[in-house]
Amino acid sequence: MLRTLRSRLNSLQTRTNTSTGRAKAGSRLEVFKDVWYLGFTSFGGPATHFQIFHKLFVERLRWVDEQLWQEIFAISQALSGPASTKALFVLCTVRAGFVAGIMAFFLWSLPGALGMYGLSLGIARTPDVLPGPNQHRFMH
Length: 140
What we know:
Largest sheet: none
Mean pLDDT: 83
Oligomer: single chain
Structural class: mainly alpha
Shape: elongated
Number of domains: 1
């Protein structure tokens, strides 16, 4: 499947190089530059993530064409697990290779992981027993 996506991307780049002036397949630096902020700013769940990805990677950056995007969207929805994470991984892997896909996965997941870790530290510092209800409010 990944070979098919990679060959489709290469044919897309051949078609778009003359119109956009973009060079060959992207680099890891390009993927980092275009993806680093998504984990911090993409809220709203998979439906919103897919809209953000479409606007960014299909319309603005033109990493993939509409047909390839729809194939990535369909396969990421069909397989179990977080669909938007899989779609971002595949987009970045197709664009700049497996290492770029792994990097994108960590850039996408790290903000949420850090937030959950921070919350767990806060919860660990709360008292073990919550204070009892304020009884005098309910007596009158």
